[in-house]
From TrEMBL:
The chain crosses the membrane at residues 6-28, 40-62, 74-92, 113-138, 150-173, 185-206. It is a multi-pass membrane protein. GO terms for biological process: amino acid transport. GO terms for cellular component: plasma membrane. This is Lysine transporter LysE. Keywords: Cell membrane, Membrane, Transmembrane, Transmembrane helix. InterPro entries: LeuE-type (IPR001123). The keyword Cell membrane applies. It is found in: Cell membrane.
Length: 208
C-alpha cells in the first residue's frame, strides 16, 4: 500500500508542478506543431529523463538539501542566470518559427531528445519543489520515505510529467489550423515565461 501511495503522490505532485504553461510545455507544443507529434514526444522523453534525475536526487537528499541554505541559494542563482540568458535568446536571437508546411526537412529525433534534456536541465525549479514536497509529506506523516518508496514516488513523477507533455502536444496539434498567430509569437511566449521565472528567482534571492 505504501508503494501505491508513493506512486499516487508522485503523480499528483508532478501534475500540479508542471501543468501550468512553462518553458518545457510550450516547447513541446511548438515542436509538435512544427515537426510533428513523434518528435515532440521524443523531446518530452528527453525532458522527462532529466526530471526523473532531479526528482530522485531531491527526494533522496530532501532533508540534507532543505537544511543547506547555501546550496539552495546556489541553485537559485544558477537558475537566475540560465533563465535570464534564455529570455535574451528568445526575444532577440531565436528565429521566428514559420507556420507549419509540408516539407522534407529532416530534424533528427536524437537532436530533439537532447534538446529536451538540455532545457529540462536548465530548469532548476523541480529540485527545490520536490524537496519541499517530500519534506512536507514526511513531516505530515503522509508518506514514509525509503529507497523503494522513493523509486515509486519518482515513477509517479515520470508518469505525471510525460502525461502533461502529451496533453499539451495533442491539444496544440488539434488547434493547429488556428495557430498561425501563435507560431509567429511563440518565441515571445517562451521568452516571457523564462523572464518571469528569472524575476521570481531574483526576488527570492534578494529576500534572503
Amino acid at each position: 500500500m505504501s508503494i501505491f501511495v508513493a506512486l499516487l503522490w508522485g503523480l499528483l505532485c508532478s501534475v500540479v508542478g508542471i501543468s501550468l504553461p512553462g518553458l518545457l510545455n510550450l516547447t513541446a507544443a511548438k515542436t509538435s506543431i512544427r515537426d510533428g507529434r513523434s518528435r515532440a514526444l521524443i523531446f518530452s522523453a528527453g525532458a522527462t529523463v532529466v526530471i526523473f534525475i532531479q526528482a530522485y536526487i531531491s527526494v533522496a537528499f530532501a532533508k540534507l538539501i532543505s537544511n543547506s541554505g547555501d546550496l539552495l541559494k546556489l541553485i537559485q542563482e544558477i537558475g537566475l542566470g540560465a533563465f535570464a540568458l534564455l529570455t535574451i535568446y528568445f526575444f532577440f536571437f531565436a528565429k521566428k518559427p514559420k507556420v507549419i508546411q509540408e516539407d522534407n526537412t529532416v530534424r533528427t529525433k536524437v537532436g530533439r531528445f537532447f534538446l529536451g534534456m538540455l532545457l529540462s536541465a536548465l530548469n532548476f525549479f523541480p529540485i527545490p519543489f520536490f524537496v519541499l514536497v517530500s519534506v512536507s509529506l514526511a513531516n505530515n506523516e503522509l508518506m514514509v520515505f525509503s529507497p523503494l518508496t522513493n523509486l515509486f514516488f519518482v515513477l509517479g513523477v515520470i508518469i505525471g510529467s510525460f502525461s502533461v507533455f502529451y496533453l499539451y502536444i495533442v491539444f496544440f496539434q488539434r488547434i493547429q489550423h488556428k495557430t498561425e498567430w501563435l507560431m509567429r509569437n511563440m518565441n515571445y511566449f517562451l521568452g516571457s515565461v523564462t523572464g518571469l521565472v528569472a524575476i521570481i528567482n531574483l526576488i527570492k534571492i534578494l529576500r534572503e
